[in-house]
Amino acid sequence: MVYSIKVHEDFVAELNKLDPTIKQQLRKKLDNVIENPHIPKNRLSGELHNCYKIKLRKAGVRLVYQVNDDEIYILLLTVGKREDNEVYDTALKRV
Q1: Which among 7, 8, 45, 50 has most CB atoms closer than 10 A?
Q2: Catalytic residue numbers, as ranges
Q3: Which residues lie across from 55 on neighbouring strands?
Q4: How does pLDDT run along the chain (95 residues), one tens digit per residue?
Q5: Domain around 46
Q6: Structural domains counted in the chain
Q7: Which of 68, 70, 77 is nearest to 95 (CA)?
């Protein structure tokens, strides 16, 4: 089953700030995620236990998404640098 993608209203602005090569890498990873969004090793914990991450190690970028199985879509919450857990704090505000 392929999930559709929805984005948080502020997600696009964050994405546009990233380098085009990073956007391309994220797009490739998202292509895999839409077919199987529940990847156990990428599941977050704590207050974000119902969210998952996509990480680009070399770039230090994280994308946080939430899966809605009832309506079959993935909500892209935030994307940005991992520094000081800023991306996770932003995701927590948007859940």
Answers
A1: 8
A2: 53, 82
A3: 62
A4: 899 999 999 999 999 999 999 999 999 999 999 999 999 999 999 999 999 999 999 999 999 999 999 999 999 999 998 888 899 999 999 99
A5: 4-94
A6: 1
A7: 77
